[in-house]
Amino acid sequence: MTKTDENLKIAFADESQTNIEYLAYAHRAIEEGYVEIAQLFREAAGAEVVHALNHLKTMRVVKTTRDNLKEAAEGESLQIVSMYPKFIKEAEDEKREEAAESFRLAFEREKHHRTMFQQALKKLD
Ligand SMILES: [Fe+2]
Ligand SMILES: [Fe+2]
What we know:
mainly alpha; Ferritin; 2 domains; 4 helices; binds fe (ii) ion
């Protein structure tokens, strides 16, 4: 992997994360009554999506829909089989109930996502 390939990965992850953070900041700004500041965060959040999508395009990771469905189902599987069960247990061990609940909620939905992708793939075959 070249330096630029590594940088694209980092920049993609950073832009994606920033997008979600700005949406959360907009939500908080609304709660605090700052409607115009919320709009600033939303506008920037939208731009970060464009940056992230451009990086992703350059990384050539978006394939055909059939391949993307396979990739997505495998990604969801990874979260279901190894990531979330481990994270839930570790959060429980550390008595971090709020984190454990957040992981459990996502874990349950990932099962639904995997099923959706697998069914769509079957229909294509
Ligand atoms: Fe950006
Ligand atoms: Fe998912």
